[in-house]
Amino acid sequence: MHGAPLSIPSLEILRGRCVMGSLFGGVKPKQDIPILVDKYLNKELELDKFVTHEVALKDINTAFDLLLQGKSIRCTIWMDK
Q: Which residues form the signal peptide (predicted)?
């Protein structure tokens, strides 16, 4: 839950463990997204395998249903269909 309290055993901190946070997994959009796009366009990053369904915008509820049923990993929603 966003903003929920976090409980951390103090002994773990004393033993040298640390707590770190990140936003978007530490991706720096201005720097990293162009690199990822180039890798995708050069077939080094195969993202198409992760798209399990494609639906038109008018069928967006179908995409949510598939997600909730655990039948979809990623769904592309086409705006022009």
A: none
Q: Tens digits of per-residue pLDDT, 28-67?
A: 899 999 999 999 999 999 998 889 999 999 999 999 999 9
14-33 per-residue burial string, b: 16 or more CB within 10 A, e: under 16: eeeeeeeeeeeeeeeeeeee
CA distance 27 to 23: 8
pTM for this predicted structure:
0.52
The confidence band for 2, taking pLDDT boundaries of 50, 70 and 90, is confident
Q: Is 2 a domain residue?
A: no
- Range of the structural domain that residue 37 is part of: 10-78
Residue 47 inside a domain? The answer is yes
CA-based nearest residue to 20, from 8, 32, 4? 8
Q: Residue 5: inside a domain, yes or no?
A: no
Q: Report the sign of the C-alpha dihedral through residues 28, 67, 54, 81, in that order.
A: negative
